[in-house]
Design goal:
eight-stranded parallel β-barrel; alpha/beta; TIM Barrel; 27% helix
Length: 314
């Protein structure tokens, strides 16, 4: 018999200065001392909105207007399975106070990572801080100028995280193209990662995206902490290895059928969600994804989507 899933709702409460409210778990609860987004268990028959309004009234003494969903994170703990439904809170009346003896903290979004949190809350932090789209570039073909122009167009349209893939070209051309791509990304304050060797990536000021095969060749993080590290994952073993070597985020899939791999069925959202339970890393869904799939991806715990065709201009 499968374990019962505990339904939990939490709110991202933001003040006029843009700070987000965190609550510290009290000593009488599991994972005491960790910080979390305020909320609690949903009772049978309650809607998520009603449950969150009730919990925030009981815990903080505020009456809230529950806004749109941010994401839902399924998470497997040693003794339970949890499904964390996170909503924006757009308005509240009253002054938040720790009515159950819990400490509260108003935290700037860029400082959330400094607070130790339960695994289910960590992907929520990433969703508040990082892009919901991860562009994977197609091969450049024979026309570098056209490829770079398309990258410029993607950045102008709002892409802020890019994986540069440059298979099948010589090392000198690859290094030059990566350097040019990195310059363009920096101009737009976009993060760039290279699907290739570490030395070439660092020389261009880029991070590294590891293939699943390359991921398992590392015992420790192959990059300094300031350089972003990601990996492609296909199963729980890959996800565990990505956490072990200190990846900042991963892609997981293929979720759906893709034109690049005809005849290969995707794993589907149910399998994606079960794999999501095993990791606290931010995870992009890849494989047949378009921006229209972002809400569905978020409902299954994804950071967003990673794609080539649907995010590459033209």
């Amino acid at each position: 018999m499968s374990e019962r899933v505990i339904e939990v709702v939490a709110g991202v409460i933001t003040d006029k200065r843009g700070r987000i409210l965190l609550s510290r778990r009290t000593p009488n609860r599991d994972m005491p001392g960790l910080w979390e987004f305020p909320g609690g268990k949903r009772e049978p028959g309650e809607t998520p909105e009603a449950a969150l309004a009730r919990e925030l009234d009981e815990e903080l003494g505020i009456r809230v207007t529950v806004g749109p969903p941010l994401m839902t994170v399924p998470q497997q703990y040693p003794s339970k399975r949890l499904r964390l439904d996170v909503r924006h809170v757009t308005h509240w009346d009253g002054v938040p106070k720790g009515r159950e003896g819990q400490a509260l903290a108003w935290v700037a979004p860029d400082r959330l990572a400094r607070y130790s949190m339960p695994p289910a809350d960590l992907p929520v932090v990433a969703a508040l801080q990082a892009p919901d789209r991860y562009l994977v570039t197609p091969p450049p073909g024979d026309d570098d100028a056209t490829w770079l122009q398309a990258l410029d167009d993607a950045l102008r349209r709002g892409i802020r995280r890019v994986q540069v893939r440059l298979p099948g070209i010589d090392a000198a051309r690859r290094a030059t193209l990566l350097q040019q791509a990195a310059i363009r990304c920096r101009r737009r304050d976009a993060q760039v990662l290279f699907n290739g060797d570490v030395d070439t990536a660092l020389s261009a000021g880029a991070g590294v995206h590891l293939t699943a095969a390359a991921l398992h060749t590392h015992d420790v993080r192959p990059l300094p902490a300031h350089a972003p590290l990601a990996a492609s994952c296909h199963d729980a073993r890959d996800l565990a290895q990505a956490a072990r070597v200190g990846c900042d985020f991963v892609v997981l899939g293929p979720v759906a059928d893709t034109a690049s791999h005809p005849g290969e069925a995707g794993i589907g959202w149910t399998a994606f969600s079960r794999l999501r339970e095993t990791s606290a890393l931010p995870i992009y869904a890849i494989g047949g994804m378009t921006p229209d799939d972002i809400p569905e991806a978020r409902r299954h715990g994804a950071q967003g989507i990673a794609a080539i065709r649907s995010l590459w201009p033209g």
